[in-house]
Amino acid sequence: MSRFSLIYLGSFFLLISILSFFNIIYSYYFNLYLSVDNYVYTLIISFLLFMPVFFKKKDEKKITLFNKILIVISGYFLIPLILSIPYSLSIYNITFLDCYFEAISGFSSTGFTIFENIKHLDQSLIIWRSTTQWIGGLYFLFSIILLIDIFDNNLKNSFTNFLSFNESETRKQSLKVLIFYVILTFLIFIILKFINLRTFDAFNISLTIISSGGFLPINNLETIINTDIKKIILSLTLLVSFFSLFLTYNIFFFRSKPLIVFSEDFYLAFYFIFLVIVFFIFFNNNNFPDLLLSITSTISNMGFYFNDSKLNLYFLYLILVIIGGSFFSTSSGIRFLKLLTLTKFSINNLVSHINPKQILTYKITFGENNISDDNINKYFLTVFIFVISLFSITSLLTFFEINFSDAFKIGILTIMNTTNSSLFGLEAYDFQNINSVSKIILMFFMIIGRVELLTLLILLKKYLFKN
Question: What is the SS3 string spanning 198-248?
Answer without folding.
Answer: CHHHHHHHHHHHHHCCCCCCCCCHHHCCCCHHHHHHHHHHHHHHCCCCCHH
